[in-house]
Amino acid sequence: MHGKTLYQKNPKLFFTVQGKISPLLHNTFDKMVRQFKHHEGKLLKKVDFVNWKTDNGHREQQVMGTFHLQDRDDYNKYNKICGKIRQLAYKLSQLQPDDPVRIKHEKLLLDKLYQMGILSTNTTVSHLETKISVSAIAKRRLPVIMHKLKMTQKLDAGTAMIEQGHVRVGPHIVTDPAFLVTRNMEDFVTWTDRSKIKKATLKYRNELDDFNTM
Fold it and tell me: For the RNA-binding S4 domain, which residue ranges apply (predicted)?
């Protein structure tokens, strides 16, 4: 190259010390980009998965109702997580396909999301735009997993049982319905030993003995 780029001359124009995009660059973008018209924004929404707000108010209410989210803050946290995952996937996609950094971190990202139970094994980074959603994360909440395991018929009932201390994951009693169950821990979701619900279930199955009642 015959001359330095603008970034090489003054990197502070682009990033702060903490690695965040500088206010100056934000202002530059604001001046360069005009407000999109309605039909333009609608079209761009399909491809802009870095800043795309995937869930509007109606979608928010629907998801909160479906998965019995009691706190809107939980929904907002999941939505932010989805945005960060898409942003990371987008940044990786800007690297060359054979770049060792891209290959390594794409695998780490997909493996992590699979272990969390959010993605299936057949997913690629290019599919994260559609696969990652608030619903995908909410499906790993403890009441939803209990419903999946047929421990309870309704999510609100499962939520109440969790808050009352009837449920444990592995050796630990969990009283927070927002607890996210990973794929590996799903088989360890059960009733606490002293839970009346466990005793009633065992009695119904004729599996209750003196040891279980202690």
Answer: 140-206
Q: Which helix (H) or strand (E) holds 191?
A: strand 189-191
Question: Which strand (E) or helix (H) includes residue 31?
Answer: helix 23-32
- Is residue 182 domain-resident? yes
What pTM value is reported for the model?
0.69
109-118: long-range contacts, CB 8 A cutoff, minimum separation 24: 109/85, 113/85, 114/183, 115/182, 115/183, 115/184, 116/140, 116/180, 116/182, 116/183, 117/181, 117/182, 117/183, 117/186
Regarding whether 148 and 72 lie in a shared domain, the answer is: no
Do residue 130 and residue 168 come from a single domain? no
In this structure, are residues 22 and 12 in contact, taking their beta carbons and an 8 Å threshold? yes
What confidence tens digit (pLDDT) does each residue in 160-169 have? 999 999 999 9
Structural domain range at position 90: 50-138
Q: How many residues does the chain have?
A: 214
Question: What is the pLDDT averaged over residues 168-190?
Answer: 96
**Residues 111, 191: one domain?**
no
